[in-house]
Amino acid sequence: MKRRQGQPMITSFFKKPKAYNLDDAANVDKNFPNNSECNEQSNLSFKVNSGPKMNFRVEGIDEENPVTTTGFQEIVHPVWQANRFDIGNTNRNSLDDTTKKNVLSTKLLPKEKYKFPTEKSHNRNFQPKWITNDFTWLAYSASEDSVYCKPCWLFFHEGVGKGGYQNPGKLVSVGFRDWKKAKESFKKHMEKEYHKVCVLQATSFLKISTGKQLDIASQLDSQRTKEIAENRAAIEPIIRTIFFCAEQELPLRGDHDSGALSLTRPEKKDGKFRALLRFRIESGDKNLEKHVLNSSKNATYMSPIIQNEVIQTCSDIVTEKVIDRISNAECFSLLGDETMDVSGTEQLSLCIRYVDIPDLQAPVLREDFVGFIPINDQSSENLANVILQRCDELNLDMTKCVGQGYDGAANMAGHLSGVQTRIRENYPKARYIHCASHRLNLTLSNVMSVPAIRNCLRVVSQVVNLFRNHSNANKIFQETIQEHAPDSKKKRLLRLCDTRFIERHDSIIVFLEHFECIVMALEEITQRTWTISSTASTLHSASQKSEFLVSIVICEKSFSLNLPLSIFLQNKSSYLVSAVKYTNEVLSSLRQMRETANDTFTEIFQVASKFSANLFDYELQAPRVTSRQKSSANPQTTSNEEYFRVTTFIPCIDTLIQNLTDRFIKNEDILSSFQLLLPGYAC
Question: Which of 70, 105, 219, 389 is most buried (most C-beta within 10 Å)?
Answer without folding.
Answer: 105
